[in-house]
Design a protein that fits this description.
By secondary structure, the protein is α/β, with parallel strands linked by helices. The chain has one domain: 3-Layer(aba) Sandwich (Rossmann fold). It is built from six helices and ten strands; from the N terminus they run E-H-E-E-H-E-H-E-H-H-E-E-E-E-H-E. It has an eight-stranded mixed β-sheet, sandwiched between helices. It has a two-stranded parallel sheet with strand order 7-9. The longest helix has 16 residues.
């Protein structure tokens, strides 16, 4: 599979790039810094630039967006995601997986009550950005999946996680290692049954 990761220079995006490479996929990482894990094609550029993104996603079988916020830039995640969606339409690429956050959209009920309150108070601005991002994804007309992790940690991978559709009753734990989130996303890329779903993800 040809996979383009937008925002894969560090964090869960870089871990996903390494996992996908090790699994035999052809991986392209687009980031402002132009850095990527060894053995991965790196593209430097602004992910809000339509021409840059179109070049990076052309020929891809799937695109993953793992961008974070940007200092001094309002609604950075949403702006990048809109550009990616437009570029995918231009390039004829349909499969899209976007890393959002638990607490965005209608997913607050999946958080334990104390964590839900803290998340709402402390992460109001990032969640507003994610809400706009998710709105762009769900109206994109692409084969999309939203991944909403709980709090991310740098702990070692456990090799397991719990992915819960928001329509399914239940709550998630408060955190997940970035390495497990990356493995979850890689698995979802090959699972067409998750198209059109928003999945909260935490440690098992």
């Amino acid at each position: 599979m040809n996979i383009t990761i937008v925002g894969g220079s560090k964090g869960s995006g870089a871990l996903l790039a390494s996992l996908a490479r090790d699994a035999g996929h052809n991986v392209t990482v687009l980031s402002r810094s132009g850095t990527a894990p060894e053995g991965v094609r790196a593209v430097a550029g602004d992910a809000r630039d339509q021409a840059v993104v179109t070049a990076a996603v052309t020929g891809a079988d799937a695109v993953v967006v793992t961008v974070g916020g940007a200092k001094g830039v309002a609604d950075h995640r949403a702006a990048v995601t809109r550009t990616v969606i437009s570029a995918m339409h231009d390039a004829g690429v349909r499969r899209l997986v976007v890393q959002s956050s638990l607490g965005a959209g209608n997913s607050g009920s999946q958080l334990p009550a104390p964590v839900r309150l803290i998340t709402k108070l402390l992460l109001a601005k990032p969640l507003a950005d994610h809400n706009q991002q998710e709105a762009a994804v769900t109206s994109s007309g692409l084969d999309w999946t939203l991944v909403r992790p709980t709090g991310l940690t740098n702990k070692p991978a456990t090799g397991s996680w719990h992915a819960l559709d928001v329509a399914t009753p239940g709550q998630l734990r408060g955190s997940i290692p970035r390495a497990d989130l990356a493995a979850c996303i890689l698995e979802l890329l090959g699972d067409d049954s998750t198209i059109g779903t928003a999945l909260g993800v935490s440690s098992s």
